[in-house]
Specification:
The structure is a single chain. The chain has nine helices and 23 strands. With about 475 residues, the chain is of the alpha/beta class. The chain has an eight-stranded mixed sheet with strand order 8-10-9-7-11-12-13-14. It is globular, with a radius of gyration of 24 Å.
Amino acid sequence: MGLKKGQGIELSITDIAFGGKGIARHEGLAVFVDKTVPGDRVSALITRKKKNYAEARVVDILEPSPLRVPPRCRYSGYCGGCKWQFLEYDRQLEYKTAHVRESIEHIALIHGVTVHPAIPSPLIFGYRNKMEFSCSDQRWLMPEELANKDIEKGFGIGLHAPGTFSKVIDIESCDIQPALGNRILGDVRRYIAQSSEPVYGLKSHEGFWRFLMLRHSASRDAWMVNIITSSLKKDVVMPLAEQLTADYPQIVSVVNNITARKAGIAVGEYEVHLAGDDHISDKLGAYEFKISANSFFQTNTKGAEALYAVVEAYAGLTGNEQVLDLYSGTGTIPILLSASAREIIGIEIVESAVSDARKNCLDNGVHNCRFILGDIKDVLPGLDHKPEVMIIDPPRSGMHKDVVAAVLTLAPRRLVYVSCNPATLARDMGLFKDVYRIVEVQPVDMFPHTYHIESVALLERKDG
């Protein structure tokens, strides 16, 4: 009997898919069930039915899996951040490694590739150096609050419920940021609640207070507070900046980003400096990077050091090579590899990132890196020299087909591909497989308690 949307059913979870959903089978049909782990026996409701698969949500856990552990955070499973807190960390790493291997086999159709066990994050809690909290005039209630008719349903500041733009959970404490961040969040919440200015409505698009962004320097234990509002009212935000810097010496920067745009993005159309410096600084290896409110920096500093150590090992530089770094961002990889290469050229399409990369080189006394602003598919055909080694660190969507074609035309002897998405990693590996062989792949966990995984793949040209 075929499944139908709205049908209740009992399911036994046997595996976890990339994306974090448990997998069950009903009469040979794959059923994906969120918030489950292998070994669970659940009562579920079919929410979606397609020809080759179905999706369901849990109504009740009839028999919990022995793999389950109590989540540390009361919001786990509701805020969309740490969806895997109910799975012990070693098991998370096993599934992440398996997802990388399976993607290469099923998408790239390449078998026998060495995929090493995922390198764990040095910290599994308190690891995030950047958090964005949304303000809402109507907060989303937790299940234990629903029965209380007198519960206050107004202002909240926190994280979004999965798949929603207007449902914000009022987060008192987030365990993946350092502890002081939660005290700062609490103080900002109280200040906003007592303010005469209204909180921004995510549906009405009216109001003043929009976001709070916290950035932390792991090397200096210093903080930046970025207050995002819909308009400039310095007399309203300055007392908050003064209060925070007086109470917490670790806060070395307070800025106010202002945006009237309706898009739910915590980036201002312009920025006003309120207190301390206009940036914080953090270190990766021996190099220091200035981080402004809206600049890119890996969100797990210690995890990033582990990731870039793999990149350096796979690049295998001797000091004589010319290296090409695609999607070079703010210059992190070129700077970290600069001491081992003759020259490193970075290509990046975002002008502000190129500017930051050049400044980071000057600040660190690095003189053998240069950066080209432009679209990679347009820049590559005009290069004067063919690099011996190419580093590729594309966005989550992977490489554009024209960039793949340009790389294959240059055909450096070695490629080091850094990926945050096993599916697009595998897709691109499939496009390279006629010319390159995949020597090995090393997953590196940067995001504990989520299904996300970084990977570094080493490819060598088949003809040497």
